Amino acid sequence: MTKYINTLFTLIGTAILFTACQKLEDRPLELVTEEFLWDSKDSLGTNAGYFLNSIYADLPTGYNRIGGNVLDAATDDAVPTEDGTTIASFTNGGYSAISNADNSWQSNYASIRKCNLFVQNFNKVHFKKDPTIFIQGQYWRAENRFLRAIFYYELAKRYGGVPLLGDKVLSLDDDLKLPRNSFDECINYIASECDAIKDSLRADPVPASDYGRITKAVALTLKAKALLLAASPLNNPSNDIARWRRAKNAAADVIRLGLFSLEPNFSNVFLTRKNSEVILAYQRNVTTDLETNNAPIGYVSGSTTSRGRTSPTQELVDAFTTIKGLPITADIKSASNLTGYDAANPYANRDPRLDKTVFYNGLPWLSRGVETFDGGRDRPGGSVIQTKTGYYMRKFLGELASSTAYSNQTHNFPIFRYADVLLMFAEAKNEVDGPGAASDSVYNFVRDIRRRAGIQAGSGQNTYGLTAGMSVTDMRNTIRNERRVEMAFEEQRFWDIRRWKIAESIYNKPLHGIRITKASNVLNYKVEQLNTPFQFFAPRMYRYAIPYSEVVKNTNLTQNEGY
Fold it and tell me: Cβ(114)–Cβ(145) under 8 Å?
């Protein structure tokens, strides 16, 4: 689609030229007036389109968005490489109603306000009588309603129930002391909006010029995400199966479209602008910023030194199975002939996604192997800011193993992708129907993910490491681990451990890294505990606090528990 980064600045520039042509300055020249923005003579709706694109720019951006760190650095999957970062407030109990590094209350409501301005004013634009232009206007109306729905989803997963504004654009003359709607009301609103607009949106696949636009599949996926959130233990303490069934059916609606498939090459999901798996991604400019922010510190590209901001944990690395799909656990490490795991060569014969997710010692990058052994170029010791765990984040970065310098890469943050839909369906179906037979049902969806990853099928029934006769609990834990490794660093783990209501058990235990020493070219590996504060206060920290400034202004806005 047309790039929507910086389009609002283009619009402002156009407004300046427009007003500068007038004989008298009757308003500030930099002001974009409503008459200009919603010009009835703008028969193509050009200015309204710019405004809609500026709302697109408010979609979740991911990557190193919180003080230069990824959100997953506030989970058990990683820690920030540098001390004193804002992201650390999530792991030391430091966020509150006054301070929150991910405070999105104001930004999401500002975006919702823009959506409502679009609803209120779009009919003022008189499109020329052309079927193509008319259909485009229909698309834009539906896209705007979707954007408003996803902003409410971003609020609901952080705060629970929030005030729903409908189409109203509030002014200072209105009663601004609005109470919160319930969480269920918010989820039902999001789902109903997706249902209302799904048939008014573009159908997939879209041409390259429209890639990144909201489509029917995008709306159905948001509905499935919202309903899965509502069915999960945090919001479904009585384990109402009807909620799980509703989530299962919503995910099935996306699958039933038959428009998406797992990209054969896992890396292509994140490095190609358009592929068979991504349903919606934030459209970024082509850059090298992810490489310079996250690659190991010993690499210099031109005059730019890599920062290695994210240090994945041993817990994440151990979550990746062997190439046979079998887990790395203490009770099977001695049975290397069965699992394919070798403690003296711990990264060999592993789930191939490990190589695409984590920089470990010896992994090729910019024409040399990563050196995270003590004294290595990527863990030199001393006062240099360097990995805390013996690992760096590899995911999303270009295929530059044999290159000598960074080159511009496509980095589109995946908001929705098909692998997530398959795992959502498997999770909900397991709760509703159980795992089913090993040759069918929930097993199939987990096997599909593992097959694409490159895990070996195994003998017999092509199990991909799955065991026949799994219980609901066994399959639940398998799906959760599969989500962890498949969706690592995609801002999923942070929310998953909250909606599953396991965050207190995850956070309130120590994390680990690897210490590698080298003697006579022999590497010795030792797991070590990190000296990193890691705590979670339940039930308070399962939701964000509503900002103190908002509660003070609106006495009808009740605060979340514990704040």
Answer: no
Interatomic CA distance for residues 415 and 60, integer angstroms: 7
Residue 157's φ and ψ, nearest 5 degrees, are -75, -20
Has residue 256 got a pLDDT over 50?
yes
Burial class (CB in 10 A: 0-12, 13-18, 19+), 95: buried
Q: What are 280-314's pLDDT values in tens digits?
A: 999 999 999 999 999 999 999 888 899 999 999 99
| Residues 6 or more apart in contact with residue 144 via CB below 8 angstroms | 52, 55, 115, 118, 119, 122
Q: Are strands 364-365 and 368-369 parallel, antiparallel or unpaired?
A: antiparallel
Distances (CA, A) of 398 to 43, 373, 410: 43, 24, 8
CA–CA separation, 97 vs 93, rounded Å? 12
By the 8 A CB rule, do 431 and 241 touch?
Answer: yes
Average pLDDT, the chain: 91
Is-contact 532 508, C-beta < 8 A?
A: no
Give me the pLDDT at residue 367, please.
96
- Here the tokens at position 530 are 């990190």
**Phi-psi region at 390: left, alpha or beta (left = phi > 0; alpha = psi -120 to 50):** left
- pLDDT tens-digit readout, 302-311: 888 999 999 9
**Cα(first)–Cα(last) distance of the chain, in Å?**
43
Q: What is the pLDDT of residue 496?
A: 98
Query: Where would I find the beta strands (DSSP E) of 283-401?
Result: 300-301, 304-305, 310-312, 358-359, 364-365, 368-369, 392-393
Of 492, 387, 513, which Cα lies nearest the Cα of 75? 492
pTM, whole model, 2 decimals? Answer: 0.92
At residue 1, the pLDDT reads 56
Give the model's pLDDT for residue 479. 98
CA distance 93 to 535: 6
Contact between 479 and 500 (Cβ < 8 Å): no
The torsion angle over the Cα atoms of residues 263, 266, 270 and 272, rounded to 10 degrees, is -50
Strand runs labelled E in 247-318: 278-282, 300-301, 304-305, 310-312
Q: What is the pLDDT of residues 3-35, one digit of tens each?
A: 444 444 444 444 433 333 444 444 444 455 777
Distance between CA atoms of 395 and 386, rounded to whole angstroms? 18
- Positive or negative torsion for Cα 334, 338, 339, 341: positive
